[in-house]
Amino acid sequence: MIVVTAPTGNIGRQVVANLLARDTPVRVVVRDPDRLAGPVRERAEIVVGSHADPDVVAKAFDGADAVFWLVPPDRQAPDVRRAFLDFTRPAARAFAEAETLRVVGVSALGRGTAPAADAGLVTASLEMDDLIAASGVAYRALALPSFMDNVLRQVAVIRDQGRYYGPSEPGRKMPTCATRDIAAVAAGLLLDDTWSGVDQRSVLGPEDLSMLDEVRIMSEVLGRPIEYVRTPLDAFKAQFLAAGASESTAQAMADMARAKDEGLDAGVARTAETAGPTTFRAWCEEVLKPAVQS
Predict the structure, then answer these.
(1) Mean pLDDT of 19-40
(2) Rounded to an integer, what distance in angstroms lies between the CA atom of residue 278 and that of residue 149?
(3) Sheet of strand 102-106, all strands in order from the earlier edge strand to the far edge
(4) Which of 48, 142, 217, 254 could serve as a FRET partner for 168 with CA atoms 20 to 30 Å apart?
(5) pTM of this prediction?
(6) Would 219 be classed as within a structural domain?
(7) What DSSP state is assigned to residue 29?
(8) Cα 27 to the chain's mean position, in Å?
(9) Which domain holds residue 60?
């Protein structure tokens, strides 16, 4: 039995789909079962509630072989780092009592390259990894760069303005990955019962790209010019505040963006194992273009 938390999210739903495609017994933890796709409701065991609840995780982990762990975003969190850790503590206590459990968690690149200053969500993710690892459970942290799928947040702007906004230096090349590649790696680890101990598994795209590279590819795929517009960090933070995020969340996003511009994601070599198969061009053709045209 494999437990999947956050099964309605962008990564979690793909993990569930991959596991069910292999006829694997799946148990999902979800607040609202109505948000699950019909086939998932029909085939998976459902534990209703939050995976921050000790009673819920105790029920969900009972008899499980592996767990996919993801802390859902909380834009109103008064303290992002405490939010990650407090949400994870009940699960970490349950992990400590399950000697044979394997856990695969969504985390971030940055171990060994994170600056002394706070790197925002990355710092919180790495501290979450340490908390899970301290439980004694077998753990693989998925060390991830920015997601290609985040571009979808600006579909309307790309379509209506021909612009793409971001805080990164235009020419800085960084890795980026598709969530479908993350889900495939996660499912593979969850199904593989031969690993133990604590380690990280990076999922990088096939190449490093700058924002200028990305808008060039977008332009070629969409058949129209797309311009990159750099957003100063203070304005980038202000956008999150205007959208209702807490001060801590807005600052964490700005701190993460700054750290990435300073080389946060450059600490892992691209190898046959770490390079996901989906290129940014393929993702634009298969995901972005239909979204812009819809």
Answers:
(1) 95
(2) 12
(3) 45-48, 26-30, 2-5, 66-69, 102-106, 138-143, 198-202
(4) 142
(5) 0.95
(6) no
(7) E
(8) 20
(9) 2-147+177-203+266-277
For the domain that residue 57 is a member of, what is the CATH number? 3.40.50.720
Q: Give the integer Cα–Cα distance in Å for 175 and 182.
A: 13
Strands 102-106 and 26-30: unpaired
Q: Is residue 30 part of a domain?
A: yes
Contact 120, 80 (CB under 8 A): yes
Dump pLDDT digits (tens) for 88-146: 999 999 999 887 899 999 999 999 887 767 899 999 999 999 999 999 999 999 999 99
The pairing of beta strand 163-166 with beta strand 227-230: parallel
CA 105 to chain centre: 9
Look up residue 286 and give its DSSP letter: I
C-beta of residue 200 within 8 angstroms of C-beta of residue 141: yes
Which of 192, 196, 216 shows the shortest CA–CA distance to 281?
Answer: 216
Residue 167 lies inside a defined structural domain of this protein: no
Q: Smallest Cα–Cα separation from 204: which of 266, 254, 115, 259?
A: 266
Instruction: Report yes or no on 61 lying in a domain.
Output: yes
pLDDT tens digits, 131-161: 999 999 999 999 999 999 999 999 999 999 9
For helices 54-61 and 80-96, give the axis angle rounded to 10 degrees: 40
Number of domains in the chain: 1
Give the span between the Cα atoms of 202 and 45, in whole angstroms.
29
244-288 confidence digits (pLDDT tens): 999 999 999 999 999 999 999 988 989 999 998 999 999 999 999
pLDDT value at residue 116:
63
The Cα–Cα gap between 18 and 171 comes to 36
**Integer Cα distance of 215 and 228 in angstroms:** 6
